[in-house]
Amino acid sequence: MANQTVSVARNMDDVAISGLLNGETVTINSNAKLTLNSDSRWSAQAAVIGNITLNAATGGECHVDGTTVWQVPFNTGTGNVPARGTVISRGGASGEMLGVFSALGVAETAPGAAMPASGFIKLRSKTGDFTAGALTGISASATGAGQRSWLHIVGTEATTINVPRLGTLRMTGDWFELGTTTGVRNQTVQLPVADILPAVQIETAAGSGVYEWYPNAGSQFTAANYPASTTDPRAKVVIITSAGLLRIGSSSTPADCAFLPPVGCKIRIPNLIVSSSTSANYALNTLNATLATRWDLTTTSSGVILLDKVIGSGFFVSAAQPYQCEITDCAFFEQINISECATPVVLQRNCIGQSAANLQNALVLTSCFADGVVEDNVWTRASLAASGAYVNSISNISGFTFSRNKTLSCTLRGNATTGTWTITNALNCDFVDEILIGGRMVFVTGVNCNVTNTKYADSGAGTTGTGNPHYAIDLSSKCNNVVVSGFSNYNNLTNAHPYNGIVTLNACDNIKIRNIGTALSNYNMGSANASGVVANLGGNSSNLKLQRCYTVNARVGAATTTNSDTVAVLESVWADGADVQAIATLNAIAKGCRWSNTTTGQTAVYGTHWMDCFTSTTAGRIVVVCNEKTTLEPSASSYTVDAGSPKFTSVGTVSMPAVSDRITWETPHRILGHTSFANIAPTITGTNTGNFTLEYDLDKGAGFSAVWKTLNAANLSSETGISSSLGFRMRIRATTATANASNALAYIRVDTVTDSVSQQAQYPLDLATLQITGLESGSEVRIFRNSDDIELGGTESSGASLSVQYEHTGIDINARVVVHALGFVYESFNVLLPASGLPFPVKQRPDRNYQNL
Question: Are strands 239-240 and 245-248 parallel, antiparallel or unpaired?
Fold first, then answer.
């Protein structure tokens, strides 16, 4: 008849707005609220909706409400279906009839038509609880109490829901239960409507109450993409047809090719089902390949979008410039696209399924700077065949937390420049417990970001191959202050590792890579097509830390390095003891690592002087690397030229041609994890190494002895009092004894004794400095942690100031500073120690009663 206008609160079925025809427009103004809680095609309006427009000047709300709809199963149906709106009752229970259905997946039995013998009665709402027995208002008997039912909302393709700043689109649903799993492959379940749907939820175990999304893999479920025996959790996908038929645990006879849930697990979907149709046949559900042609949203006037428990087929969720956007427990096809949201974006427990080979990013977030939460979602993409294809595309965001999202491609990766996430210009974002199935997470300029406990599988099926190789996490283009902490294979799968390596970085600053595996349980880099390295330091980066990365079976080694990187600390970075590791990075130091050192001098490497490593569970090495120092600490104080004129060659050697040329190297830290020195002669690499006298001195905790001993097996192996946990410092001195123009040193290696327990000693992850000033010289200063009275540092006799380093583990430390000096009052100051360190001035009071007797 005509388009309809709602100016006061109405239900879509109100007589006052009756007469809407298929494809016509509903306008909401005067801050009115329009409620839809009946099926579009099977209701008083009985019309497929066209545009819904909320007036920009006066606003309003469109609320699709599925929280009250109920269905009661019946049998012994006779006579005719009563009029819509008839009150159906039994005892103290009653409800307004919306329709009668003989089964799921079929149209209603129209009012006035003959009652089916069995089926269910849909009620707009109910009061009381139905019981089995004869019903009033309809010629049928209830066979049980019933359950939450579903609503089918249908819009017209190429029309939109226009939501301005004064408007709200609210869709509020509930869960519709479909039954339970049989534990038998190729189980089929009919969904409520004859339409392809994007996903279902299935319990993790019978009765667990914990559900997981199983996305529809659509036409991508093929033998090539899910080959025989792909039954692990990567293949938690289903097939849903355009007739609304769900197939679980599909098999390609005789081989299984999907994950099979155990028997007795509940199956459910959101109960608000949104489809689209066209004027060619309004009775037919359609799914246009072009996302923007589907029934969608227009929010460029900053509307509010609130979607909860909605499952959409021909409904495209694209919110450009919304004021607010919160989507929870929903499932849609191909993509959710949100840009320029004025308030925090909320995306929780959603799923993107695949209808066909529709090559779209599952999640698109653009220019959202007001924070957001994206957690427990399942994001899928049909294919990663094309260059530059990613499952999710994120750009220009700030303050987001991404947690426990499962991101996967429904086909095997077909190009090396693809992956699961591409992230450009992310500021202050956290990525926690993310699951990456099918390829890398790429950051192009990420600042102040944390990537924590990533779970990875290189492909959706089978083991890691050599084609289209990836690093799991790729940092580039001046990423700054990024922490990558924790990494494992998804579901602890064997040989699901990234082929190239775990992390690669290029042109980045202040990067930390840590907590991969443990000393007792190393991360296995693979037994087939093993992963290359923990980290690839690809150049033009600075201030890098690799810490507590315990791996085994690396194809290449612990790390690849280049001399265009500078300032790197490698602490407890383990590969295999036989792996030969070169460090070409400038200003680097290696502590407590597991590998064998190279004996080849590195060209144009400066500021890298010391490494200590373990080559087995019983043997280790301490190595002096004869590079020239820089002005940076600790390199600037790493050695002294004591006599003569030693010269550095820039090819990893020091030239010492003249008699009495002398140089002394000193470790800038205490070396942990070694229990003693081996009875093995030091290994000296260079030219004319017999022309040098080599000596050493140790600081085992009370300072250096100032007594130089010859660096030989006998002296070293006789050293006692070395603690693997407290560590020791070492000086090595080289003096030219015989002149020769070719005299040069490249490496000085001292072998040690260790054991598997001692090797578990760890260096602090993050150190901060407490700078105490205003002290009276000679004061005793101690810093204690209040929680357990552990001493964090101090001195017997201070100067006017004291710097104390402490480990910060992410939580500020309640501590106290205790100061005592002769002639001054004993002082105790409470202090909160932050991650950034702290200047702390004190003022000591004279003790006027003090007598030094």
Answer: antiparallel
Strand partners, 378: 351, 406
Show Cβ contacts of residue 803 under 8 Å, excluding neighbours closer than 6 positions.
769, 770, 771, 772
In angstroms, rounded to a whole number, what is the distance separating the alpha carbons of residues 101 and 108? 5
Burial 427-454 (b: 16+ CB within 10 A, else e): bbbbbbbbbbbbbbbbbbbbbbbbbbeb
3-state secondary structure of 292: helix
The pTM assigned to this predicted structure is 0.94
Among residues of the chain, what percentage have pLDDT more than 70? 98
Burial letters 323-362, b for 16+ CB under 10 A, else e: bbbbbbbbbbbbbbbbbbbebbbbbbbbbbbbbeebebbb
The token pair that represents 713 in the structure block: 């097996």
For the record, the structure tokens of 669 come out as 């830290």
238 and 380 Cβ atoms separated by less than 8 Å = no
pLDDT digits (tens, 9 = 90+) for 491-529: 999 999 999 999 999 999 999 999 999 999 999 999 999
Sign of CA dihedral 575, 577, 583, 587: positive
The answer to which of 25-34, 392-401, 547-556, 800-809 has the lowest mean pLDDT is 800-809
What is the separation of C-alpha 452 from the centre of its chain, rounded to a whole number of angstroms?
Answer: 6
Q: How many CB atoms lie within 10 A of CB 94?
A: 18
Consecutive H or E run containing 286: strand 281-286
Q: Which residues pair with 663 in a beta bridge?
A: 641, 734
675: number of Cβ within 10 Å: 16
Cα–Cα dist 362/344, whole Å = 20
Q: How many CB atoms lie within 10 A of CB 211?
A: 18
Q: What's the CA dihedral at 528, 533, 539, 542 to 10 degrees? A: 150
Cα–Cα–Cα angle for 468, 410, 194, rounded to 5 degrees: 165
Rounded to whole angstroms, the Cα distance separating 62 from 36 reads 8
Residues 6+ apart with CB under 8 A from 621: 596, 597, 611, 612, 613, 614, 615, 749, 750, 751, 752
Question: 86-118, pLDDT tens digit by residue?
Answer: 999 999 999 999 999 999 999 999 999 999 999
Q: What is the DSSP string of 293-346?
A: GSEEEE-TTB-EEEEESEEESSEEEEEES-SEEEEES-EEES-EEEES-SS-EE
Give kind and range of the element (H or E) at residue 714.
helix 713-717
List, as one string, the DSSP characters of 114-173: BPPSSEEEEEEEEES---SEEPBSSS-EE-S--EE--EEEEEETT-EEE-BTTEEEEEE-
DSSP state of 715: H
Residues 6+ apart with CB under 8 A from 696: 708, 709, 711, 715, 716, 730, 731, 732, 733, 750
Query: Which residues, 6+ apart, have CB-to-CB distance to 773 below 8 Å?
Result: 800, 801, 839, 840, 841, 842
CA distance 713 to 705: 19
Closest CA to 663 of 640, 689, 697: 640
Interatomic CA distance for residues 591 and 608, integer angstroms: 12
Query: What is the arithmetic mean of pLDDT over 226-234?
Result: 75
Please state whether the peptide bond connecting residue 846 to the residue before it is cis, i.e. omega within 30 degrees of 0: no
Instruction: Give all strands (DSSP E) within 470-508, no chain letters.
Output: 471-476, 480-489, 501-505
Do residues 326 and 312 lie in contact, with contact meaning Cβ atoms separated by under 8 Å? Answer: no
Length of the chain: 853
Contact between residue 293 and residue 158 where contact means Cβ atoms under 8 Å apart: yes
How far from chain centre, in Å, is Cα 835? 23
Q: Which two tokens stand for residue 239?
A: 């097939």
